[in-house]
Each structure stands twice: as C-alpha cells, then as structure tokens.
Records
---
Amino acid sequence: MEKETVSHPFLPIFDNESKILILGSFPSVKSRETNFFYGHPRNRFWPLIARLCQSEIPMTIEEKTNLLLTNHIAIWDVIASCKIKGSSDSSIEQVIPNDLSIILDHADIKQVYANGGTACRFYKKYTINQTGKEIIQLPSTSPANAAWSKDKLFESWKQILEVL
C-alpha cells in the first residue's frame, strides 16, 4: 500500500458549552469510510466516553454527537491533511494542522487532551504555539494499544471528569 495524501473528511464536534477538547491525530480508514470519529468497531473511544459519562454506548452519529455535547466535550483531530499509508500513524508525513481556533474562538475550553501519543506529539509540534494551551496526553483508545485494558483506560481517562 502506497502513502496517499488525504484531507480530513469531517468537521469538529463542539458547541459554545464545550469545556474540554479531545484531539486525535487523524481519522483511520474506517473512520473516513463511516465519515465520523472513531469509526473502527474495536476502537474503545465510544464505550469509554459512555462509561465516563454514565451513559449508554452511542451507536449512531447523532447519538455520539449528543453524548459529547450534552457532556461539554469537543472532539477533533490535530491534522487537517497529510500523507499516510492506510491508518498507520507512524507513516504520517507532510502534515498540515487543523486550525483549532474554529473551536477555541467559540467555546470556553478549559483543557485540551490528546487521545494517544501521536496526537500529543503533532499538537506540540504544529499547534501549541497557535493555541497557547497545554495538552495532557491520555492513552490511546485505538485497538493497536492492546496493552491498555478497558479498565486501565478508564482509570487514566477519568481525570477529564474533574474539568467537566
């Protein structure tokens, strides 16, 4: 499989009540196919957010969006476009970052979190100077991060509840 230049296919989820921003790196092939965040069926993001918010696991895009907005959570990705091989974060190059002012100018974001090391690294490389906001790295919910169980992810991610 060759690297291809891909642009981010969907908009961020946020409203003026959003208090935290969770950033991924770039949508996986599955997410690009489903046209929504964390579209891989084994990604643990949606079950984790549902557990943190004491909610049912959302299934539709509408349910996922409502879960986030009801709980004052914004999500997007650091990268607007890049060259990438499939869904491999390690293959990412020629990064053009997203303009996070789209969110930060309209929501009172108290804390920015990275869903994994790649998102954190690219945020620090391309975006922190623009935003002036520190980022806290959380362990990735990707199925590739098999070392982290659902319970271990929950224990690490529950720090977001302190801001909400």
---
Amino acid sequence: MIGLRGLQRSFPAPNGGTLSVLRDISFTVQSGEFLTVFGPNGCGKSTLMSILAGLDFPSGGVLEGAAELKGQIGFVFQDYRRALLPWRSGAENVLLPLQIRGVKRAEQKERLAALVEKLRPQLDLRQPIYTLSGGQAQMIGLMRALIINPKLLILDEPFSALDYGRTLALRQTLMQVAKDFALTVLFISHDLEEALYLGDRVVFLSSKPTSVVEILRVPFPRPRTPDLPGDPAFGALKLRALRIFERCQLDCVR
C-alpha cells in the first residue's frame, strides 16, 4: 500500500543550521496489515505519521502510494482532548469530516447509525466532549476517523493517557475494528508489549536523526486474546525485542 525509501525530514534550527529529524526511513506497509512503530521518545514517530497522513511533507527520499490514498486516511491523534471540539457533542465531532466534505445530512445520519451498530460505543453521543471520560473521548476520536470509511487508519499513541483497564478494552476493540472494516493500520506505540501484541510486524526506530534499526515479524495468529502476553513464546519474543531496543538506545548515544 505504501513504500518509503530513504525518507528524510529536517527543520530549520534556531542557530541557523538544520535539524535532521528523520534521516533514512525505509519500509513498506502491506495492504491489510497491522503495522506498529516503536522507538525512543522524541525520535520523530509523530513527524513520520504526519507525513504519511499528508499533514507534513518529507525533505527527501521517496514516498510511494500515499498520494493515491488522499481522502482515504483516518487519523486518531495522541492528544484526544485537543483533537476534538469541546463545544460540540460526540456525534457532531464524529460527523465533522462528512460535514467538511459536504455529505448530505440524511447520509450523515445513516453512516453514523451504521458505525454505532458496528462499534456499540456504550456512551451517549449527544453529550458534549467536556463531559466524557478519557476512554469515551478517545472512542469519539476513533469513530471520527472511521466515519469516512478509510483504507488506512493511523493512530498516534492513542492510549498513552488512559488507565490500564480502558487501554486493554480499547486494544481489543481496535483489533476487532481492523478486522471488521478490513483496514490497514499504522499504530505508534510507546509500550513495547502493546506494539508486539497488536502488530503483525514492529518497526523499530533509532533516536534522532532517525532511521530504521530493524523490522520484527510477530508470528502469533489472530484473534489475539489478553492472555497472550503470558505465553512463554511471547515472553521470548519480547526479550528479542528488548535487545533490538537496546540497539536503538545505542544509536541514541552515538
């Protein structure tokens, strides 16, 4: 679906020089795959996702396939509170992309009803955003990304501010959504166990200037259940992943 070859992104530095954030990013995103991205804090993961979503542009390298997905990418932001409009209800936030596109009101209602039927979000969509819990607000963000029937869903550390119980529940919801909607998913995670649990492959990134250290295939079949992390085979994979991450940290020192 998407191919990156030697992707680069740099910004003007305060001293008049250039700050290189993404140095050499090369990997592919296969149609229908759940690809997770893991790396040190501040390594440029969000910058990379913004480029793939069309919210930013690379300074160099090749990005294939993204242009063909224009208008078919759903994005769930890390800061769900700032990403939603607090003066609008949950339903009005979900429908915002359709309103911007000029979709007729009758079709908006039909698509919202169909989405609610599939997701069963267990919240009152008539409530304003400021009355919702963190998990409920993030569900609104997910629904807003899905209302356009995307081919690619990008999520930027969407569970980082949620409690453990809500995170576990939303992980299961997300995997079911990916299956039901036949989505290709790109998921940034700051949690190594989460990256392994959700992903078909995990892309490990170094610190800035960022490059790909390794891509690890996750061999466990789907559906995956919450008891998977207790499997000795999962523990062995996590140990291997930790060793890869140590290399990411060494790149940071260099």
---
Amino acid sequence: MAKAKIEFVCRECGSSHHQWAGQCLDCKAWNTLEEVVISQSISSKPATLQDLPPSKVHNLSSIKSENRLRLSTGLSELDRTLGGGLVEGSVVLIGGDPGIGKSTLILQAIAAINKDSDTFYVSGEESANQISDRAIRLGISEDILLLSETYLEKIIKISKELQPKVIVIDSIQTMVTDTSSSAPGSVTQVRDCAAQLTQFAKQTNTVVLMIGHVTKGGALAGPRILEHMVDAVLYFEGDAGGRYRIIRAVKNRFGAVNEISVFAMSEAGLQQVENPSAIFLSNQSKPSPGSMVMVTREASRPLLIELQALVDQSSGNPRRVCVGLEQNRLALQLAVLHKHGGITTHDQDVFVNVVGGIKVNETASDLVVMLSIMSSLRDKVIPSDWIAFGEVGLTGEVRPVYNAIERLSEAQKHGFKVAIIPKANSPKKPIKGLKLVPVEYLYQALQYMAENT
C-alpha cells in the first residue's frame, strides 16, 4: 500500500521541511513554503549497487571536443542571444509576463526551423484551434505538429514515435507526471516534469523549449532549481502594452549571459530591431536640460542610451527616484557630486530615468548621471552630439571602464562629435570625427561642461 506523506517544500530553493514556517530555514526566504502530498510506495527490495549499470571514469585529456551543431531560429537577434542558435540536446526556458509575446515568438521561431527539421508544439493552455488562429494571424503556413496535452508520459511517448528535432512545451507549469501526486503547477510537479524533459533531451539530442510563468515579482514561477536544470534561461522584458520587447539571457551554457535582443510587436508578430540604439534615443529636435547620452554594454553589444535627470525645488523631504538605475547608487553619486563638485542638492528633488525602459547595471553610468544632474540644476543644455561614460569613485576620481574602444566606435558610427571619457581609457590613436575629452577627476568634467555649454 502507498503511504501518504505531507511535506512543505520551498519554491525558491526546493528544500523540504516537516512543518510549515513563515521563513525557509535554508535560503531564508519568506512565505515560500508550500504543502506537498507525497506518495511513498514501500519497496520490498531496495536497489543495490549490483542492480545499477556500471560507471566509467574518463581522463579529461582523453575526451575529444565536439563542435555542437546549432539550429537557426530564423531570427538573427534571437540566435545571437542564444549564442549562435539552438544547440542539439539543449533545454531552454523562456519566461515573461502574460501577454508579452512568448508564444508568438516561439511559434515564429519553430515555423522557420520546420522548413528543414520537424518541430512538435505541445500546449497545455490552448487548443489546437487557438494555435492555428494565431498562426493564420501571423501569416505562418508551415505544417507544424500540434498537440494539446498536459500528461507528460503521453507527450514523451508520442515524441519518441515522431522523433522531432525541436519540442515546445507551453507551459511547464501545466504539465502533470505520474512521479508526483501534487497538483499541476506545484513545486514538485514542475521539478519532476522539467527533470524528465531534460533527461529526454539529453538522451535523444532533441531541443526542448519550455515556456514558464512568472510571479508578480517577475521571477520564474516554481522552484528555483528549475533554472539550474536547464541550459539557458531567457527573460522577456518590457511593458506588455508597449511596442518594444527585450529578450535577455540570464543564463546560457552555450553563450554569453546578459546578451539582449530587441523586438517590436506588430500585427504580423515580433519584428527584429537590428539597430536598438535608435529606439533608446529620443527624437527631440531641440535638446532639453538634464539629458545626455552614454554608451552602455550589454554582454557583447554596445548600446547608446539616453539618461534624463530632473532636479526641482523640494517642498518637504527631498525625494531621490531612479528608474532603470540602482536606487542606492544615486545617493552615493549625489554625495560625491557635493563633496568633489561643489554642487548641493540637499533641498532638491532628484529624478533620474533611462529612456526606453532598459535597465543599466554597470558603473559606467556614474559620470553621465552627474553631468545630467548638473545640467538640470543649472538649466544648461548639453549638446545632442556629446556622449560620456566612466565610473566615479568616492574620492572624485574618474575610473576606467572596460571595452572603451568599442563604445567609442559605436558613438562615432552614430555621428557623435564629443566624448567625455576617463583618462585611462584614452585610445592610442585618435578616432576620426570624434573629439575626445579625457578627464582624471570629476571636477574636470564639470568644468569642461560649464565652459562649453
């Protein structure tokens, strides 16, 4: 007889507890324990080492490297985010807010793959008619294999018969397996279904694309171990009601992380944006105070983005608000600006925004933020053909950043004329059409701006 057992599993780290608690004792996360009913069958004969297949130990130097073949998705932007395409036997997890375009993107990708290889689309949320209606709306006429099913064992059995090159699971939270008696979407169901699909992908060299739900906080729903199982994790960023979508690789065993691709949503589906710098720059005919352009780095891609600052007289407790930048770093930048630049904002509200909805995580934005704040405070317009980048230390020094040559080349390609950069990043050869202003300390950059604006 099967004996029922109840455990409380943390959806963040996957650890089990005998009783419920407000905080997980392992990962210290709050309100993450979920009740799980586990069926344990009593085995009459436990497995021994004699029952298991033999294991072989290899020397690392004797293993020959193999160049894994990659499948093109037909979308060059998505291929670059994946590191060059889909690797055979890889498992890719794609997450994002509802309605942001996950199913649309995957349908467009497997339609292109289906021209040369068989693809298999499994949906646990929509019927075959709904998927067909979306394909007609997108203008897709490829004969893709469709299945509306949530029972994982049946899906794997059909997949072994069809032997497709790519399998799409939409979504992993709707799948159910016999190895777990929990409800669909629970921690154990998601974990067990993902483990079986990963094992199937590795054994058959099949590419598995899994679509995952996200929580209100934007993280992938289900156990955190789900992200450790798969080979790549892609996140959709952007407003579901807006036009532009950003796909970011937060994990990739076959390529660079933090690589991004930009798409525009239209009636015909997601369209690639090959020059994303253009959408992150405002098209104002007349520049305004508080706006400046910087060159940021997203994995292997340099991007031109616009930072805007608004400094206004405070009527009470001064506010410091950041959108797209780290909130705590703004307080640090204002302190350095006061100490080493002589610019005080203790009675001012300071708002900083990154145009286009992109998030900037690198410290190269320090110099641009400070120049934008001074521009807004002094009501001085920074010329639209100026750019800057550089990290500013607590002692007021402007520190170098990595890949400065690629950043300057991107700025020169878009017609910028003046670049305020760290002195340590000065190239050995001048860049044609681009005037370089190397600065060693913050006050030098502020002085140059005051004299030339």
---
Amino acid sequence: MDLDKVIRKVPDFPKPGILFYDVTSVFTNAEAFQYVVDTMVESYSAQKVDGIIAIESRGFLLGACFAYKKGLPLVLARKKGKLPGKTVSESYDLEYGSATLEIHKEDLLPGKRWLIIDDLIATGGTLKAVANMIESVGAEVAGIFSIIGLPFLRYHDKIGQYNPITLVDYEGE
C-alpha cells in the first residue's frame, strides 16, 4: 500500500515553514489503518517484546492495536501533569520547542523489553526521552515503530541504536 497517498500534508502548521504530516487520515481510511497495524505486528513477530509503550496521543491508537493483537500490556507515555501518582519523567527538545513526558513508575517494569510506538519520528527527541526512562529503571528498548520518519532531521543520530522501523520516510522539507 502507498501510505504517502493517504497521509494528509498540511503546510505552515504548527508554524510557518513547517510541513505537517497528519496521520489522522490513516486512521480514517480503514484499509490503510489495517495495513499499518498488520505491518507493525508482522515487523516484530520474531522479536521478544514484553510490553508496549505508546506516546501521546496518536501513538496510543497504534500501541493499543498492537498490544491487543499480541496480548501484551500497554503503558502510556503522557505529557507532564496528566498522570496521577509517582512517575518517571524526561524532558526533551522538539523540532519547534521542548516538552516533558511521564510514565507511571509502577508500570515501567525493570528487566522487560519495551517496544516504543509513536506516529511520527522527527528529530528523535521524544523517542529518546522514552528510551531514557525505560533504561533508567533497568529495562530494555525492544525497538521503535512509527508510521512516518523524517530522516532529514537526523533522528538516527539520537535513536539509531534502537533500530527504528518507519513505513514512510520523507527525505526533504
């Protein structure tokens, strides 16, 4: 399937000069959504994965589907202040700002292999922050999955060691 034809491109969002790749159009296309979920599950069928960490918010949709299909626990990485109780947190830089993510400390089990799922990889900062939280509790990153990759923003410099899998790569701005 040619996902590029399904992905909506929005110029000058969230600010002038940015071309935003909107994956919500993948979710509204049943065939494309099924393709993404089936490909994601197939891509990790031979690897040991103990659980999924999905990144807010579009990553939640993908992560939930994967966790359900594989019978695995789903842990949510949320924006700062959205989770009650004790959390592990990590701040990071985005391509146009900064942010902090948190995960419930009790959900992030040491010794486990976690697959990180998000919708798009830009600079890799968000995914590296989650990987840092995973490793800080003595767990491992099993891999990283995303629908879209923007390799021209050099995300491999931050997260290449986790062998990210993307379904569509955009090479230019």
